[in-house]
Amino acid sequence: RLITARKGVSAAHNPAIDPAAIILPKLWATNIPTPRESAPSPSTIIPKFWTGSPWIDESVYAIDCTKYDMRAKELPSELVKKVLNTYYETGVVLLKNTGLTDLTEMRRWAVLPTHSAMQYEGGANLRGEIAKNVFETGAPSSAWLHYHHEMAYINDSTKMLAFCCSGATKGKGEMFLSDSVAATDTVLQTDFGKKLREKGICYIRCLTDQQEGDTGSIYNHWQTSFNVSSAADVERIANSKGLEVHWGPNRYCKTKHYTSGFEYFPQLDRNILYSSIADHSSWFDTWPGVRDLPTMPSFEEATPAHRPLLITYGDDSEMTPNDLQTFSDVYDEHGFPIRWEQGDIAMVCNYRFAHGRPQYYLDEGEERTLGVVLGDMFSRVGQRNDKW
User: Distance from the CA of 232 to the CA of which of 2, 9, 55, 87 falls in 20 to 30 A?
Assistant: First the structure.
């Protein structure tokens, strides 16, 4: 018997798959309650996600859909106008009391602020297909997910993403959003933020060769991440995404990407913080198996015996523990929860908000099912020095 615990992921990387499809997660499921992980080490950077008071009150972005026919062939124009106006003004919309349980029906609403769903390639999370147009995330519920902007670590990113909840358990599995506009103002007042502005950031992401077999705690294989079978194709796709590729022993794929830690947002005509601790080895602090691996000592020395993610400044200098703590804190200070109920649809601007979640544990008979749609792609320009 299975108890399903589902978490949505980003759009598929397989060109043969309809990129506009709803994406569902891997089933992290057993016939017993989810086991609790041991306490993190004292040096672990523990995300708080918020101060205990929401940075933005739900009344600002939530819309009650009780009086609307959400399944109507023609979407109610009054509600469509509310959705688009709220999204433009605030960058987040949460549709409540929709009465919807089918993810395909929810998708009609989820894509309102966008024009198309993006093609996904060059990622690092597992994207295995578990059913037609259904893909797994590879992120267990026992791992917290630090705040992050989707697809910040390559040249092509997405302007928005939407979360569709078809199953929920009250009080469990909440998601958090953080106001990146406010986080930008906060981080630029710190020494860390000034260094990030000056130096930029380097993303280091490493991937194992599937043909070598699973010899330990594997995060992802480059065949899965890039959806290819040859090293030459990896280099072709990676280079098109702005990644440098280096090969270690046993075809261990090591990539680097140098970019700004900020992104210019045309609508507000200013730079926005667009990077986070989520791309550091801290991402794995509560990830079963990988949490037991040490941080790679350097890009050159990285092997499958190390955690496969690291961030440095753009001049390759290390971020100190204090820097990384500040990186986490500036998002936590401006966070607020999305407490899922069945039928909820959240549309989120990927510029203006970072998203993340704490660990959660489901007991027998409980469920958390999210589908995620990613919107229009854009080519990153990084920071503009005249837009601070």
Answer: 9
- How far from the centroid of its chain's Cα atoms is residue 371's Cα? 13
Q: Say what the pTM is.
A: 0.86
Q: Is 371 exposed, middle or buried (0-12, 13-18, 19+ CB in 10 A)?
A: buried
CA distance 362 to 4: 9
| Assigned token pair, 258 | 């140098």
CB 168 within 8 A of CB 341: yes
The one-letter amino acid code at 4 reads T
Query: Please, are residues 373 and 110 in contact by the beta-carbon 8 Å criterion?
Result: yes
Which residue carries 């009150």 as its tokens?
57
Please tell me the distance from the alpha carbon of residue 57 to that of residue 74, in angstroms, as a whole number.
31
Nearest one of 5, 54, 4, 335 to 173, comparing CA atoms: 5
User: How many whole angstroms separate alpha carbon 256 and alpha carbon 251?
Assistant: 16
- Tens digit of pLDDT for each residue in 343-365? 999 999 999 999 999 999 999 99
Asked whether the beta carbons of 192 and 322 are under 8 A apart, the reply is yes
- 305 to each of 40, 143, 284, how far by Cα in Å? 20, 20, 14
8 Å CB contact between 380 and 155: yes
The closest alpha carbon to 357, from 370, 366, 344, 347, belongs to: 370
**Tokens found for residue 110:** 């989820």
Contact 254, 302 (CB under 8 A): yes
| Closest among 200, 220, 290 to 9, alpha carbons compared | 220
d(CA 82, CA 76): 10
Strand order in the sheet with 201-207: 244-248, 252-259, 201-207, 309-313
